[in-house]
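Chain A, query sequence.
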Amino acid sequence: AVVERILSIDGESGQNKLLHALVLGHLGQRADAMQVTESILQDAAPDSPQQRAASRMLGLFQMAENDWDAAAETFFQMYAVSPEKQAETLLLATEALIEKAQAYIDQNQPDAALQSLDDAQALYAPHSGQLELREQTRLQLLQAQILARYNRVDEAIEKLEAVVREQPKHEEARITLASLYAIENDWDALHEIIAPIQNAPQYADIALFFEGRYHFANGRIGSARTQFETALDQLPAGPNPLRPTLRFYQGACFDRLNRI
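Chain A, predicted structure.
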């Protein structure tokens, strides 16, 4: 009854049209909802509250329809008419392209997913600043995750090494890169990449784990055991995804030492 009353309201004003579009969207009638929002955009003054609200709503409807490119374009056009809204509109366009990439991953099309993330990075190419750097880095990390997931480890390493060269203090990139070096048995590179984070308290456990892996691979089993046990002692109480792995390598150290 409430929905029917809302839909019966005079739809000539912009605010009422927005309300109609929202209700239609909730009812799953997105084609009708998008038609209403497009009519609002035709009539609304550029950079008006109604224009921005209708653009945002249209982009969200397009995302719900899996029309990622159209959504990204809709959000990006918000920036074209309202440059002061740059951060908001670029982030909305970025999220549309990330969702597009995820849809491609669900379809087992990694190259198409990587291209979508390249397209997202291109949004930031004309700009410079902390926002742009943060978002471009986030997109590069997502690309590295996709590459690693599809066993394209060399490409993932190359992507992460570029991030670390540009941002030496980016701990997440260093830790992910260390994991990939371990997969490739590149222990010297692993040892070098984790060195800067060894004194960071928030990363002490993972740094100790990788240092233990480095010693274990080089046959220094006593040193490896010390690193693993120190990491175990520093883990907070309760479940921790690192604990079983540390226990495994602690046991491997005991086994190797008993055979020496």
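The mean pLDDT is 83. The longest helix spans residues 86-106.
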